Description:
By secondary structure, the chain is mainly beta.
Amino acid sequence: xxxxxxxxxxxxxxxxxxxxxxxxxxxxxxxxxxxxxxxxxxxxxxxxxxxxxxxxxxxxxxxxxxxxxxxxxxxxxxxxxxxxxxxxxxxxxxxxxxxxxxxxxxxxxxxxxxxxxxxxxxxxxxxxxxxxxxxxxxxxxxxxxx
Length: 146
């Protein structure tokens, strides 16, 4: 899955990043460096696990890089939620891990691609506002459309 240019812009608008780095890259999907804490919900055997807090490293239209204390392996899946300025609900995306490397003891760099929108997404509680520094956990995901 690839985010549309509009959806990508809405997603990164909430985060501080190094947009100038895009011009220096020769990638099909240039990355924007973003540093903030978010929660992801690992999916094991189709069942969502307890949310874990991770740091974002970068994002592109096709995927996300995160830093986690939890090791993951290629093929593992998780749901990540991004706040949106003009929407009541955050954007919840199902991601599949493509690579994981240990940076130091208990610190792992994880690269994942976006597979699809989490269709099981529910509206946040009334009066709650999205916070990019601590995005809420996502509900159980449904399979992404192929």
